[in-house]
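Retro notes (design track)

What went well: tokenization of the new backbones is finally stable.
What didn't: we kept losing track of which sequence belonged to which structure.
Fix going forward: every design gets posted as structure first, then sequence, in one message. First example under the new rule, 239 residues:
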């Protein structure tokens, strides 16, 4: 199994992801939201690029909730911001979440053409590694990054997923995947994530609980998967 890594949504090249198992990571905070919402009983997540698309799908129907952000802030008229802590069972149970974010949903849509597109974050990292072993295909870890730039948080999260994989089986790492793993091993307590510019942006908004939550490892044991426009739990991972 080969593992490669792409550093931002703007750097995805079709030929790199085609037929691969892609893991999309936007640990701050889009993929942490998706994993949390699905774990709390949300039926499905529909990622879209624009606010207009999101509003058109939801069309004021009760079964939909609208979530996401622009510049890390709640979008006018939406039910939830991009804080994973808002996606409680009371809010998401049996609902469809229509979501648009600056980087995360772009990274998911940009990975179309891959054989599988799974949703990863620190909170479900071990489960993601298990799923990749089961899929037994070459892997590309797509970091959402921040506004087209490299983002330390997603890179370290990738390093941790690679670490989980290496503990289970032999894998062949590209230079960048090796570097993500190396950086992770230099501070497995995740301290270096605090240097990420996006971490600081969330801090400026006083969203400390979000940061604390998104930086927890392996608190959730599910792996949502994106297929044909929708993210669902196609089969539960726990086995
Ligand atoms: O870019 C994204 O997709 C978001 O996760 C960014 S934020 O953390 O909500 O600002
Ligand atoms: Mg991010």
């Amino acid at each position: 199994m080969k593992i490669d890594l792409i550093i931002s949504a703007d750097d995805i090249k079709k030929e790199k992801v085609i037929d691969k198992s892609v893991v999309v990571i936007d640990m701050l905070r889009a993929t942490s939201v998706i994993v949390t919402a699905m774990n709390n009983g949300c039926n499905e997540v529909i990622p879209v690029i624009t606010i207009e698309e999101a509003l058109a799908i939801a069309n004021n129907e009760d079964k939909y909730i609208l979530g996401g952000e622009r510049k890390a802030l709640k979008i006018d008229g939406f039910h939830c911001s991009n804080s994973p802590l808002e996606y409680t069972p009371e809010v998401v149970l049996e609902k469809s979440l229509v979501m648009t974010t600056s980087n995360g949903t772009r990274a998911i849509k940009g990975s179309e053409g891959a054989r599988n597109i799974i949703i990863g974050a620190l909170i479900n990292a071990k489960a993601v590694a298990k799923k990749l072993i089961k899929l037994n295909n070459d892997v590309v870890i797509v970091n959402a990054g921040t506004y087209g730039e490299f983002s330390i948080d997603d890179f370290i999260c990738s390093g941790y997923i690679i670490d989980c994989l290496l503990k289970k089986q032999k894998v062949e790492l590209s230079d960048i995947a090796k570097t993500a793993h190396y950086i992770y091993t230099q501070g497995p307590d995740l301290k270096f994530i605090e240097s990420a510019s996006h971490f600081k942006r969330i801090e400026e908004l006083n969203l400390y609980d979000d940061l604390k939550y998104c930086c927890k490892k392996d608190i959730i044991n599910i792996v949502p998967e994106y297929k044909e426009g929708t993210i669902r739990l196609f089969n539960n991972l726990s086995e």
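Added context from the reviewer: Residues 2-226 form a domain with the putative 2-phosphosulfolactate phosphatase fold (CATH 3.90.1560.10).
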